[in-house]
Amino acid sequence: MSTGQTPPELTIPIGMNLDEVKKDLAKLKELLAQAGQAGVAGFDDAKKSASGFLDVLGEFATHQGYQVVKDAAWAMAGAFDEAYQHIRGVAREFTQLQQAMTQVAALQGRSNSDKFTREQADLAVQASLKADEWTKFQEQFQSYGGAFIEGPNAKLNGDDATKYQQYVAEFAKARGLNPSEAAQLAGGLLQFQEGPTDASTMIDRFGKVFKTLERAPTPVPQLLPQMTRVMAQGASPEEASRMLAIMSEAMPGEEETGVTNVLKAIRNARLGGRGAELGVTKGMTPMQQVQAAAAAIQERVAAGEDQDALMAEYFPDIREYRGMSGFLNRGLRGGGFERTGAYQAETPSDWVSTELDAWEASDGGRRARLQAEEQWRRIINGQGQAAGEEAMQRARNALLAEDRFGTAGPSDAIRGLLSPIAGSRDDQLVRERAIQDALAQAQAAGVDVSGFSAAERNGLLPGMGAGFGQSAYAGNEMLVKLLEEIRDNTARTGPGAGRPLNVQPPNPRTRP
User: Fold this and answer.
1) In Å, how far from its chain's centre is CA 76?
2) What are the sequence ranges of the domains in the chain?
3) Which of 12, 14, 454, 506 is the most interior residue, by most CB within 10 Å?
């Protein structure tokens, strides 16, 4: 096409039969009037809002008040859409949380049911934790200590095990740590605990160990994962924390390397028949061996022997040399052995509980609980809506199988007119199918559905299911109510069904 040349106009002929248009509009008005009567007893407000809108929409059908209708439609659509999006949002949050708890349920040997999800959410808010924080904590704790809170190897009973976990998780949060970072230590402490115990004992041990690590130069999150590896060398939790704290002054960032290599060198000397030369005797704990070796070297150096020669003889590897130098200089000569021992001896048994009480009373602690409560309330709201979201998903899958979204017909044009208040055509189709399926289930289960119109029970017109003309909000309420009545009528009181009550969150954790 040459420049400056005006292209010919493209004309698409459209035929319109005005008589047929008037009939369609009259039919639309009749259908909307029927749909305006839809609903369930107890949803009068939603019905009144929908009916009021339908009256105005009727004026549109007679070509009157177009601008008024448009303004009213968008205003009402916004209100309904906000409510509906909240409902869908909390339902999806509940479902996502449930999926995130799959591993936790498996580790606990529980069914990943709605009841289980709600139980875990309750435990979380008791500890001022959000449910996702509690989930991550559980994943770590169950991996390290789960085998010791159930079955023949159990060292804590159910209530004490729960209390112990809640204290540790909340304490970590109060200290600015991710609770999951403390879970490994909590599980490790229980793993190395001798025989049955109780929550008070375990919380006391955790407090003493944590305070020792907290006083070290290295940040606690870096020391926590090293604890169980040092404990695997035979050290008690108390000893492991003391040795890591001392080594953090000499080999920051390499604490575990320093500790384990020193223990390896001492073991080699003992196996080679030279343990007595380092003051090490049979039956000593790892910490006692380290202290004895440091004291023996110090004594021999004081008697005139060369320190470097001694170190090279018993700790020839550079990692062994650096580690033992750290224990000698920072542990023995720097007072680290006595200082870390004092941390644990002087830490009161109720230190963790006292610190938590102070944190909960603080501005930060109070706000953390409020944030945890907000998520908890969204979860229990989502629990009541999850069944409706599941029904919608089933309906969506069925429509996809039929390729319904890929086809269009006259009824879809009417749905297009309703989109400002009832949502997109696809959303309307899904909602209609879900309600129609629920009505069929209700009738099969013997539920009294007389509160629904004949049109709703049987489908309004071919291609239009129950719920046609309803706002997304009102349609969702109808669906959830139907599912509740099906459950109640068939005595299926499984967890997760039913609308949540306006309940208060569980009480905060109590002293063990």
Assistant:
1) 34
2) 38-87+383-512, 198-353
3) 506
